[in-house]
Amino acid sequence: MIVTGFARDQWYVAAYGHEVGRRQLGRTILGEPILLYRTEDGRAVAMADRCVHRRFPLSEAPSHLVGDQVVCGYHGFTYGPDGVCVAVPAQRRVPRTARLRSYPVVEQDSFVWVWIGDRDPGDTTPPRAPWLAAPGYTTVCGMEPLNARYGLLVDNLLDLSHETYLHGGYIGTPEVAETPITTEVHEEAGVVYVSRHMDDAACPPFYAESTGIRGRITRWQDIEYHPPCLYLLHSRVAPVGSPPPAADGADRHAFHVEVVYAITPSTEGSTYDFWAVARDFALDDERVSDFLRESNRAVVLQDVAALNTLEKVLAGEGEHYQELSVNIDTGGLAARRILARMAGESAARPRSAAP
Amino acid sequence: MTTGDPGTAGGRAVYRIHWAPGTDNLRAVCFCGAEEEFEDPVALWDWLLGHPEGHNPRPAPESGAPVPAAALV
Ligand code: FES
Ligand SMILES: [Fe+2]
Ligand SMILES: [Zn+2]
């Protein structure tokens, strides 16, 4: 079954760094309304987005920032960046319990990560996607809200054979669905890898337009999923016959695109679909940036439309729907298993293809 | 530019599954070296995760074999 429970005590992407500024931003993550903003010295902070007084959202006007503090727009309760209430209108004493829950924040690789859980993160840090903010790469990115449970997006991203059917004309070609895959699960690290190396494939418009390659390509897709939130697709594209990467990792004959998704559950039936595309070629070419931004957004919206439809169907079927897993689902099943364990679900066994 | 080199991450507990579309068989390889063919990924995971039950390691486990994401640059 698709995992529906939330994995708490984990890092989740709440926003891009550029979305968090001197205006409040409200996001709901794992069902918790969260207020994000930046202090005057540039630090991103996160706290509960509900005033302790009568629960007015602090992210909504007329709530506003004054310096590093946020003032509730309803009756004026005022909070510091640590969530502690510092002023209550018309009285001198601030009740000691007047504080907003505050959330640990890590800003990394262009993402603002928040820790959702009951214990402290301790030494746990969010997984990395260094390309998004590294020299030598140019990145385009966006976020599309999805009206579907997060498990549907995990399933979708772990099986790229759907590119051939759902994304023909952008990134799908017949070879994607036809090429052998290798799946690996690193149990202790909790990482799922799915690899598909196409030796001789048609070059879809997404890569032909951006790289300028005219003929057939060698196309590698190496997925690295770090449950619950971070998904990396290392994409390597080179004209057929180009030399493979050197032993030291140098690979100047190929084009590299790092496709990154952050899968952040919002509510039981909605998800933030963060997507980013980093490339190591045509770094300053605005037309390539515009093209990749538009193309990837179009692809994401195709997924969003399909998954929104699927969510409606599944929600209408309640707990008792049946599904059938086949070979292309090997990686997705592994991901479900790890997520179910993280979410503390025991009986997340999918139905078997065999009777 | 590779993160999380799977060759060193996670110690020994690595499960590997090979599938060539066009064939219906999945070949599961346990970290202990045991291998088994399946036609159903659900049965496959049951077997893999059931280690050591029913696992008969081969003489030469493929511990030195390259892993996919590590082949990346
Ligand atoms: S609801 Fe915020 S001050 Fe009253
Ligand atoms: Fe897709
Ligand atoms: Zn075994």
Automatic annotation (TrEMBL), chain A:
Which top-level group of life is the source organism from?
Answer: Bacteria
By its UniProt entry, which Pfam families does this protein fall under?
Rieske (PF00355), VanA_C (PF19112)
Q: Which UniProt keywords apply?
A: 2Fe-2S, Iron, Iron-sulfur, Metal-binding, Monooxygenase, Oxidoreductase
Indicate the segments forming the Rieske domain, all copies: 11-114
Q: Name one GO molecular function term.
A: monooxygenase activity
The record, for PANTHER family, names: 3-KETOSTEROID-9-ALPHA-MONOOXYGENASE, OXYGENASE COMPONENT, IRON-SULFUR DOMAIN CONTAINING PROTEIN
Protein name, per record: Vanillate monooxygenase
Automatic annotation (TrEMBL), chain B:
Record region (Disordered)? 50-73
**Listed name of the protein:** Uncharacterized protein
Q: What does the organism's lineage look like at the top?
A: Bacteria, Bacillati, Actinomycetota, Actinomycetes, Streptosporangiales
Domain of life of the organism in this record?
Bacteria
